[in-house]
Amino acid sequence: LQVFDDEGKDVTPRPLFRSDPNTAVPRQGKLSAPSAYFGATGPGFLSSFSVHQTSGVNANLGSFSRSRLLTSCNFSDVQVRREEVKEELTKEDLDRRVDIYLTETETIWILDMPSVVVSVESEDAGRVLERNRIYVDICKSRPGNDRFVEKMMQTINGAAKNKEAQCDKIVMEDKGMTVTSWDLYDAFNVSETEPTSKAEGSRATTGKSSTSHTRKEHNQTTSVSSDRGSTTSVTMSESAVLARIHEEEEHHSEAILTSENFQQDLFFMERILMENIFQPKLAAYRQFPVLIDPDVTSAASGTVAAVKEAKREEHDKEKKDKEEQKEVFVDLSVLSQLNKTPEEIVPPRLEPLWSYRCDLTNGHSVSSMAWSKVNPDLLAVGYGAFDFKEQKKGLACCWSLKNPMWPERIFRCEHGVTALDFSTASPNLLAVGMYNGSVAIYNVQSCKDAALLDSSDSSNKHTGPVWQLKWVEQDRCTTGGGKKERLICISADGRVTEWLIQKRLDCIDLMKIKRTESEKKKLPGEKERKSEALISQQAAGMCFDFHPKDTNFYLAGTEEGHIHKCSCSCSEQFLETYKGHKGPVYKVTWNPFSTDMFLSCSADWSIILWHQDSQTPILTFSSAAAFVHDITWSPKSAFIFAAVNESKVEIWDLSVSTLNPVVSCFASPRGKFTSVLFAQSTDCLLVGDTKGDVSVFELRNLAAPSSKKVDPLRDIIGPA
């Protein structure tokens, strides 16, 4: 056979053995010569048993043909020619027994991967578990450990081989971005807690070609080998270490968020943001010139939109509703007294500034409000319903002007709050009365929600709702004994009580309000009837107020519609009884300048001005067919007072008109007004409603008349 390439050149492989031409070659048979020449490795190689070569075909014994190689040798080259040779087998050859022996050769291992997994029942299981535990401890204490030193050593693995591969051209691009430390921290945590499935797959693939990568894992992974060479890796120790590190980081983050320093920093940061946002309105509240910077205003608006966008949308919607419902009425007698035309005078009005509200107070009705005696920026608001069917848990919140969007202190009560007041001698004490008749005292300096003192253990506690409570300073004696502050309450059980603050709260009765028989006119010819039996001998107390100069006397309003003048020295009978209302008296208050005058409001839709020396009403005010829930005198004028009914708030100025209020502002359709309070140092008014909002209004163009006279009201209404 000769092999030629595409160009026609002879590329036949040359034999490894060339005979010496001078050596005589013995003549052999046609088959043995080529076998000897080629070393019995040519294509004419036969089996070990002898085959007789014949020419011809024997049909009886059978015949077969095979190829034989005929060679002719030259000293320069060898020519090989294939020829068909017919061979016949004899009967003896067919009947002869041939023994064939099969033997197993030595096994050749192409890939050997020693197992790194041991059975838990083996003798080495304990030693392997101990090594894994030591490795986990080393990994945990590795950062910052002085005993840890990085060293290099040569292992039994073979030297690394350099391998080069041709790839596409690598294009380099410069890119930049701005990130914060928080972004870096989050990205680092994600990279550590990311599942390691991809890494496991790559380790399983590379393990088939090299054992060094498996040994490099330091027994962190376990692999199971089969006869076919397939392996499956599962990460155990590494995932446990990562989970433990992630858990420690979560605990560390929680510790930071709950730390006092972090909470204090957030507290001041929130105040700064609120002052930037409400700066124009706070300046108007304090009657400072309002300087508006467009850049600051837009930045502040953007901050609020980013932080509390939903709340702002709700606030704007409610404010729009209030502005649509707001109506201002001006008494024309003001213009006639000033001798000015309507075009020359600016009518008084109420300008809304903001509302104390948050998600916590939403849906809780405002029942009472009280200013701190030493901090004019601190307002206490009680949240609780007056109706028995609407009762739920109450709240007592302390709001500050520095943050109108969230209260400084929150005290959660088991029952609705009906009354509250700050102490004068101890300004940090806040007394709270509740619907179930209990009284609690809280310390506003403490962030704890628990009450400092509670009347739940008192045997003399009230059995009805505490409708009003007040801290009263009273002269103990005339010999220089000083003043003592007492906590006075009035309840629906008909008792006016004084609470003694010691190790626990206990009370004594100042007055038990007795019912008065109704006076019915006797018709001519009618026989005298027996007096009707009363279900209860005591009348429900609704409100009270102590005289501003002589705290030994006080007024008490009842559910019968009567107002009793009482003395702390006499608990058996009333000094005077004022009968003018046809319904429960909700509020009674002395005039701070004309101390002989007092106001009262009732469920009979009326407000009555009284003189303490006369049992006949001096003036009666009624502008709407609705319950008058609350009234209060202005702290700057003896002629101005505010009143709220369910539908609107009214400002009355008796120096202008005794028939109509000078300013009226209607409530939102979704809420009803419940309480009213004047600001102590500014011309502002606070109004609470059933939605849980305390709206702050600025009194515009309402000049307070002078109150320096001894009895300023006497010049208007005349002597009693």
Give an overview in words.
The chain is of the alpha+beta class and 720 residues long. Residues 24-80, 196-235, 299-308 and 324-343 have low confidence and may be disordered. The N and C termini lie far apart (151 Å). Helices cover 20% and strands 28% of the residues. It has a domain at 350-475 and 484-515 and 536-717: Methylamine Dehydrogenase, Chain H, CATH 2.130.10. Residues 203-212, 220-238 have a biased composition (Polar residues). Keywords: Cell projection, Cilium, Cytoplasm, Cytoskeleton, Flagellum, Repeat, WD repeat. InterPro entries: Dynein_IC, WD40/YVTN_repeat-like_dom_sf, WD40_repeat_dom_sf, WD40_rpt.
Provide the gyration radius in Å.
53 Å
Catalogue the unreliable spans: 24-80, 196-235, 299-308, 324-343
Strand content: 25-35%
The CATH fourth-level homologous superfamily of the domain at 350-475 and 484-515 and 536-717: YVTN repeat-like/Quinoprotein amine dehydrogenase
Overall CATH architecture of the domain at 350-475 and 484-515 and 536-717: 7 Propeller
Which fold name fills CATH's third level, the topology of the domain at 350-475 and 484-515 and 536-717? Methylamine Dehydrogenase, Chain H
Number of strands: 32
Number of helices: 13
CATH class identity of the domain at 350-475 and 484-515 and 536-717: Mainly Beta
Helix content: 10-25%
Protein name: Dynein axonemal intermediate chain 4
WD repeats: 578-620, 621-655
Biased composition (Polar residues): 203-212, 220-238
GO biological process, one term: cilium movement
